[in-house]
């Protein structure tokens, strides 16, 4: 609904239900894939996404998500929980920060990419967008979160993308990111097929309903609630990590 994906909560819910961290991360990526695909259909039909941005952020994010998912097995379950709790804490704070839409002036400087979409100009500062997107993709793939909490502020504040377009774009590109992270994790045997399919089926419905609701809802209040809940989730995950040592 807000383009940030429920991955911030999926992993925590699975871990608290007794699922091993590596398996929870893999399952979360599958759930994210299912919900993102159904949500993207809704946003695509409503034409509230920018395909150039989907391709740009999607390729960078998904390539590193695969690497992060593949490398996750170098870390213990406790180590991944600590990384996840830190990322959730940062994501929660970022979600509470204001995302003020601001039109950008086209720049001809080296390292800037100007995109025109529906009368708007999006200015991508490649010096900032590329490293942040690569880092977001790697850690998202590693611990099974969406990364939308970081990409949406980057698009809205840093690139001048309207909030509704940013939400639709993030929903579409998160499908590619989740698929890449899922593949990386699955190569190490972290897939529980029955759990993934049952959870994914529910996520398909949730993504479709959330996408339709997002078209009629201002994301501001939902973003604030999500930010607070994400910080709480970070505290729970850190407590779980420390208690499992």
Q: Radius of gyration, Cα only, in angstroms?
A: 17 Å
Unreliable segments of 5+ consecutive residues = none
- Overall strand count: 2
Fraction of residues in β-strands: under 5%
Number of domains: 1
User: What does the oligomeric state look like here?
Assistant: single chain
The secondary structure category is mainly alpha
Describe the structure.
With 245 residues, the protein is mainly alpha-helical. The protein contains nine helices and two strands; from the N terminus they run H-H-H-H-E-E-H-H-H-H-H. Helix 6 runs antiparallel to helix 7 (163-186).
What would a concise description of this structure say?
With 245 residues, the chain is mainly alpha-helical. 72% of the residues lie in helices and 5% in strands.
């Amino acid at each position: 609904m807000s383009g940030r994906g429920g991955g911030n909560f999926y992993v925590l819910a699975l871990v608290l239900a007794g699922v091993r961290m590596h398996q929870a991360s893999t399952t979360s990526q599958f759930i994210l894939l299912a919900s993102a695909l159904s949500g993207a259909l809704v946003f695509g039909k409503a034409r509230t996404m920018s395909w150039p941005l989907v391709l740009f952020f999607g390729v960078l994010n998904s390539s590193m998500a695969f690497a992060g998912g593949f490398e996750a097995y170098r870390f213990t379950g406790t180590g991944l929980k600590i990384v996840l709790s830190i990322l959730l804490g940062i994501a929660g704070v970022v979600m509470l920060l204001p995302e003020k839409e601001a039109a950008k002036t086209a720049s001809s400087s080296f390292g800037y990419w100007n995109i025109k979409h529906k009368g708007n100009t999006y200015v991508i500062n490649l010096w900032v967008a590329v490293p942040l997107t690569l880092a977001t993709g790697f850690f998202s793939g590693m611990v099974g979160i969406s990364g939308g909490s970081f990409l949406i502020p980057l698009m809205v504040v840093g690139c001048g993308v309207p909030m509704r377009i940013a939400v639709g774009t993030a929903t579409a590109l998160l499908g590619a990111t989740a698929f890449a992270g899922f593949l990386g994790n699955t190569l190490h045997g972290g897939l529980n097929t029955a759990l993934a399919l049952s959870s994914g089926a529910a996520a398909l419905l949730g993504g479709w309903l959330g996408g339709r609701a997002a078209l009629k809802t201002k994301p501001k209040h939902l973003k604030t609630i999500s930010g607070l809940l994400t910080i709480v989730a970070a505290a729970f995950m850190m407590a779980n990590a420390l208690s499992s040592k």
